[in-house]
């Protein structure tokens, strides 16, 4: 029994240590810098360098300010990821309204999104331009992000 408690404690400590890696305004983990970078649009008018990064068996894209390698944006399309509220990719707006009554914001040409209590945002991409149509109760979350 003592061995199980020690293993559980080590798992908890390692998860807490890992979670520090993916925080806004912190330095990008060295293990992510080793991969090639791309560019990602984090608002209608701002591109930043981005890296793909696996974290706790989920895939994330991390956006950084070029010269500083400081995390300014985190996003995921990973259907296995859930926020602390239980929000996930593919959840409908109707289901999301049970979690938060926050308003929908729109950044034209980029996304419709709702801020969650955890600090994550649930983003909706409706139509080819993402914002040319309104979000409906049946619309599904396209991705989750922090910035």
Describe the protein's topology.
Blueprint: H1 2-21, H2 30-33, E1 38-43, E2 46-55, E3 58-65, E4 70-76, H3 93-96, E5 105-107, E6 111-115, E7 121-124, E8 143-146
Antiparallel strand pairs: 1-2, 2-3, 3-4, 4-8, 5-6, 6-7, 7-8
Keywords:
8 strands; disordered N terminus
Provide an overview of this structure.
The protein has helices at 2-21, 30-33, 93-96, and strands at residues 38-43, 46-55, 58-65, 70-76, 105-107, 111-115, 121-124, 143-146. It is α+β, with helices and mostly antiparallel strands and 147 residues long. It has two domains: 2-76, no CATH class; 93-146, no CATH class. Strands 1-2-3-4-8-7-6-5 form an eight-stranded antiparallel β-sheet. A hairpin with a 4-residue loop joins β3 and β4 (70-76). It is globular. The chain starts with a helix and ends with a strand.
Q: Are there runs of 5+ residues with pLDDT below 50, and where?
A: 3-20
Approximate shape: globular
The structure class reads: alpha+beta
Question: Cα distance, first to last residue?
Answer: 42 Å
Number of strands: 8
**Biggest sheet descriptor:** 8 strands, antiparallel
Q: Can you count the helices?
A: 3
- Which oligomerization state do the chains in this entry correspond to? single chain
Widest sheet: strand ordering = 1-2-3-4-8-7-6-5
User: What's the number of structural domains?
Assistant: 2
Cα-atom radius of gyration:
17 Å
Average pLDDT reading:
84
Share of β-strand residues: 25-35%
Order of helices and strands: HHEEEEHEEEE
């Amino acid at each position: 029994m003592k061995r199980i408690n020690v293993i559980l404690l080590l798992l908890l400590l390692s998860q807490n240590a890992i979670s520090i890696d993916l925080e806004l305004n912190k330095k990008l983990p060295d293990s992510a810098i080793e991969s090639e970078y791309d560019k990602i649009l984090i608002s209608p008018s701002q591109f930043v360098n981005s890296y793909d990064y696996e974290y706790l068996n989920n895939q994330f894209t991390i956006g950084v300010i070029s010269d500083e390698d400081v995390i300014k944006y985190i996003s995921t399309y990973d259907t296995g990821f859930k926020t602390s509220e239980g929000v996930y990719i593919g959840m409908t707006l109707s289901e999301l309204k049970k979690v938060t009554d926050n308003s929908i914001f729109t950044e034209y040409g980029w996304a419709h999104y709702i801020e969650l209590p955890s600090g994550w945002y649930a983003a909706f991409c409706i139509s080819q331009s993402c914002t040319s149509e309104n979000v409906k109760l049946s619309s599904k979350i396209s991705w989750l992000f922090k910035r």
